[in-house]
Design goal:
The protein has 107 residues and is mainly β. 0% of the residues lie in helices and 62% in strands. It is built from no helices and eight strands. It has strands at residues 3-6, 9-12, 19-27, 31-40, 52-59, 64-80, 85-91, 95-101. The strands form two sheets. A six-stranded antiparallel sheet has the order 3-4-5-6-7-8, with no helix packed on it. The protein is globular, with a radius of gyration of 16 Å.
Amino acid sequence: DLVEHKGDRLRIVTEDDNITSTISCEGTEKYVLFLYSGKPYNNNGRLDDWYADDILIYKWDGTPYKRLKTNKRMASIKYDAERNVLCGIAYAPEAVLVEYDMTGILD
């Protein structure tokens, strides 16, 4: 089973070879952006595995649009439409807010 029942709670059962794929996602009118890891779920329990520097961008119909590699590993992303900026929370080693200008990328 993929789901384990513990009292009134459910838990997803993972295996060592499960992949941590989407860590965070965000949408615009035209696109969906995914913060993507692609690392094994249980990589010795390292917290660092929950951060990623790949942004996968798809059109809403599921068509791949672009793939970006950032210079910081982030735990979360948010798109600011007014400024056309992708914001993220990165750790270097303490939490910092990073911003990426999406001009020419999300046009």
